[in-house]
Amino acid sequence: MTDSKIKLPVGINIGVDYYPEHWDESLWVKDADMMHEAGVKIVRMAEFAWSRLEPDEGDFDFEWLDRAVKLFEDRDIYVVLCTPTNTPPQWLFKKYPEIIQIDKKGNRISIGIRGHRCLNSPVYRELSKKIITHMVERYKDNKYVIGYQIDNELEANHCCCDVCKSSFREWIKKKYGTIQAVNKAYGNNVWSGEYSDFSQIMPPMNENGKWLNPSLNLDFNRYASESTCDYVKFQSDIIRKISPDKFITTNNWLCENMPDFYDMFENLDVVSYDNYPLTNLPKDDETLYSHAFHLDLMRGIKNKNFWIMEQLSGSVGSWMPMSLTTRPGMLKGYSLQAIAHGADAVVHFRWRTAVSGAEMYWHGIIDHSNVPGRRYKEFCGLCDEVKKIQNLAETICRNEIAILYSSDNEYAFKNQHQAEKMYYLEQLKQWHDAFTCLGLGVDIINQTQRLDKYKIVIAPTMLVESAGTLKELERVANNGVAVILTNRSGERDYNNKCIMEQLPTIYSELTGIKVTEYEALPYGMEVRLRLSDEFAEKSKYALKSEREENATSQYNLESQNKEVEKSDYALNSDNDVNSNEEIRKVKIIGKRWCDIIEENENVEVLARYDEQFYKDFAAVTRNKYGDGEVYYFGTVLNRDASIGFAREIAKRQQLDIIDGLQKGVEVTYRYGDKKWRFIFNNTEKEQKVIIGKEQITLKPFEMNIQETILH
Questions:
Q1: Residue 153 bears catalytic tag
Q2: What is the pLDDT averaged over residues 632-642?
Q3: Of 310, 378, 465, 648, which is the active-site residue?
Q4: Looking at residues 26-38, what average pLDDT do you find?
Q5: How many CB atoms lie within 10 A of CB 537?
Q6: What is the largest CA-CA distance in the chain?
Q7: For position 391, what pLDDT does the model report?
Q8: Which of 18-32, 399-413, 454-468, 534-548 has the lowest mean pLDDT?
Q9: Which of 21, 73, 98, 153 is catalytic?
């Protein structure tokens, strides 16, 4: 937990990642002067500098870093230092080869990139402790060194060295107690997998881990995540002991082997994220690209404001073909988007593009030419804009909709893909987008969190059992909350074995339904749905048509009825669409997965399949549960249908939606003594938004920010 002594910089701050060790020292002064003139308030340094800070074992050289820190101190720029442990120097690998990670084939991984070390290695930890201690002792009294980033972009520690094998066995033994309990939990009677002794337990060492026992795989990922969290605690304990007044973070990203975010940041002061939105926006309407989802996920880790420690500054590339460069407005707009979603600092990667090494084409603010260009000017404009919104300090995001995230679900889903191209985050993003398109803010939070403050709770793809989450969903639904559950929920028990009951198993009472059969759809296959007759006649709200969506980019935010009058695809408005013939024009498409739902008289069917052998079977249902309602979506809906159902649910929960927003126009709020409204045009086209008598025209990637009185 954050100590009361910790003080983060006041206000909203823009920064840069700077690598002084990459440049001749003659450039440092000019760089620092330009940063100061631009409005930079924070510089991050030393992330990968171990070889410069300790060129040989025990031979520490921090004088160059002292000079760099002093340059920024003299210009009133704060410094965040990084523990350089992600890139041990070559002398260390040669002298202590046992610290190198072992991959799942049993081979030491090739060094020369970064992150090759085993986080559990006692030798590596001892050497890390020495350089961290030296760094923190050196700057403990420097008020401009305000905090530390631990390591870099940590993943769950999937090392399979002897140390990790032994550590994993001990973890299993502590968890289960007896080898018989392990066999039962894992279902090891399949393929003669039963252990007779703990010494037989191995990490899932196979390059095709999907052939291995899913229970073993999930437990190993849990162990690997805990290993990384222990490593973070190991480093933070060293820093806290010496510098209890400095903040501590680590930079996070959505990687292949994600650790449990909530555990990793539990004892750190602020969440940091490396934010690289797309520069080449998809042309089709169904592909979701906004990083609003990622930003809300990061804010929800500690349920408070966060930092961006690496922010997109230009084209990204190097080990892949280079992306399009940032379009005019992107650099500034994406940074303001992060602030709108709760970022209090946005640190751009990087000041100058590297001229050597593997990241030469991961572009920074200034190009290889060292001539300030378009992106530098836009960056200066961003800094000027942020100076105008310093009253945002101490404001927070506050929402009435939550999406539940689970590390177990994410990894279990990845380990055994359920359908072609289907992935865990897909339905989380689907529902996040649907409510965002209505101008509603969404929190993405740990599935273990209490849910009292929300009116709508979305629990997508609840693959692995969580008894505590089930009880909480039952409790809040009973108290009037609308709960959304989706296909692939209730599939597995806590040990990642299938539950031998009709789906959605543990969620059957909540949803009131049974799934008689399911079908995984190949990529590209779609199944038509139609609204049920009974729902079409009852509904009071409107699904927007594709024709209406594309006809104009000018939208009235206060006139839902006017929009409905134009729509071919109304679920039903207060004024029109009384005909079942009109209702059946709704375009609702299912993809990825189809649960075939058995009806019963106590559950309302909202939509049915309209083709395949399960034509006329229920696909979307609503169940009255206490004072609340529980929705079940048996398929992954197309975007317009998702928005339409989100509108229906939001209206029933009496949330104030902004109907008529163009897709890609995002409205968010931060609250303090006053309310700040952000309208972001996250598209490549000019958009016009009408609010009352005011018409706001937004250029591509432009942000409109308004301070209003809090009612």
A1: yes
A2: 97
A3: 310
A4: 98
A5: 12
A6: 82
A7: 92
A8: 534-548
A9: 153
